[in-house]
């Protein structure tokens, strides 16, 4: 714990924003346009800067009906809880809804290039789900962030790359008055103190890359993510030190994705081929081009493979207390030659294989087969043996699946009939899947003004948070585009309220 009080200040601004993803960009633009002298700190170098925001698909929510959206969010906040104990309080939901309804107009006013995407809530069975309107930045998260960088640059906002926030600095009353940073820009790195006369905003994302935090807080381990290379939970730890309460720590926006030991990020898989499963946020009407199933370590199906893109990972959380293992970690994506013909197995719209081009997946999947990322068997039994699972289990599972496909009905897990394509074109293949995907949601608890709260629900003066550093979403996530929407909404809320600080 740093001693509160007298610091040597190396620099003074009104607002310090930590983290240059979408929430940091929106907050700094908003603060600047309200007349603030702000500094934006980013720990990564400019040349290799890569965030959840820049690897995202670029879909964001802009709500069409505030009342219906409030109803939907309120219903989501009750799932997995009990009456009177919502995942997120009503005031904060209201603020999220109010600002999210303005998202499209905010980006359009800046000159951003967006298009209507769909109207597909993730949980259409809940009341108010029809209010979810999804828009997409053209060129995905990569172009969206390029646009944001241009907006920030055109305002001459002071951006400091290779500058990591290390600790928050407080006065004797507990008010956050500045940040200790490690400035790595010069020949010799140095520590300096930056004073914030109004507030400090945490926009440091989640803890996708902290093994320690994922082990301690998430419902299953390991989990892997596809974007947030710099997100090691720094903002969460800094907030804890100055007394923040935490929320949503065991919640994630995640599905099942591929992860290979020799590449740092996870990959989103295009399970059915031809981008078909990628369109899961749209209402699908055609037959899937190829079949696939997902099985556990023993070759058994355990869920409908119509994966909820932001909640399916919870299905991996079953722990077998006799065998002392998570039987669904890893799981396996099982497919046949029919799928291989439909192009790259990785999704090309986001993550490492998206426009960031952190990895170029081969068109015929051969490179990944040679690397051992894709496992092949001429027969189902051979594939199962290579995966260390009982061959008879996988054979039974696939025979049953093929019978379901023949009659057009999956009585086991009620899979969408459009996805009932048999696995009968050898050879057979598998990719190891882990729970994971977009991002963690937990972090410092915030209120409707984006103020960070202590464990008693009182604001910590001078400290705000936006984006995935303590997301407003709990167990369930409303629809594709919820996270970027929250960055745009709470980036503005945080900056506007920070500017009201004396
Ligand atoms: C592959 C992928 C696809 C996705 N697609 C979508 C989508 O289409 N729609 C959607 O709504 N959501 C999507 N998401 C989720 C969404 O991208 C994130 O939730 C959102 O971008 C988080 O933004 P952020 O500003 O909170 O954090 P980030 O964008 O992750 O930025 C955090 C920044 O903080 C920096 N930082 C961390 N610690 C420090 C420190 N100590 N000092 C200085 N800087 C620090 C990091 O280096 C990073 O630059 C996707 C996520 C992934 C991974």
Tell me what the structure shows.
- This protein is α/β, with parallel strands linked by helices and 502 residues long.
- The protein folds into 2 domains: 11-251 and 441-498, FAD/NAD(P)-binding domain (3-Layer(bba) Sandwich), CATH 3.50.50.60; 253-437, Succinate dehydrogenase/fumarate reductase flavoprotein, catalytic domain (Flavocytochrome C3, Chain A, domain 1, Alpha-Beta Complex), CATH 3.90.700.
- It is built from 13 helices and 19 strands.
- The protein has helices at residues 22-33, 52-55, 66-76, 90-100, 103-110, 140-154, 211-217, 234-241, 337-340, 366-371, 380-386, 391-407, 482-498, and strands at 11-18, 38-41, 59-61, 114-118, 134-137, 158-160, 163-170, 176-183, 190-202, 224-225, 246-247, 252-258, 293-295, 331-336, 374-377, 428-440, 443-444, 451-453, 459-465.
- A hairpin with a 6-residue loop joins β8 (176-183) and β9 (190-202).
- The chain is globular, with a radius of gyration of 23 Å.
- The mean pLDDT is 95.
- Bound molecules: flavin-adenine dinucleotide (FAD).
- Flavin-adenine dinucleotide binds at residues 18-24, 41-44, 51-53, 55-60, 164-165, 203-205, 225-228, 230-231, 234, 350-351, 438-439, 467-468, 481-485, 487.
Task: Sum this structure up briefly.
The chain is of the alpha/beta class and 502 residues long. Helices cover 25% and strands 21% of the residues.
Name its key features.
502 residues; alpha/beta; FAD/NAD(P)-binding domain; Flavocytochrome C3, Chain A, domain 1; 2 domains; 6-stranded mixed sheet; 13 helices; 19 strands; 25% helix; 21% strand; binds flavin-adenine dinucleotide
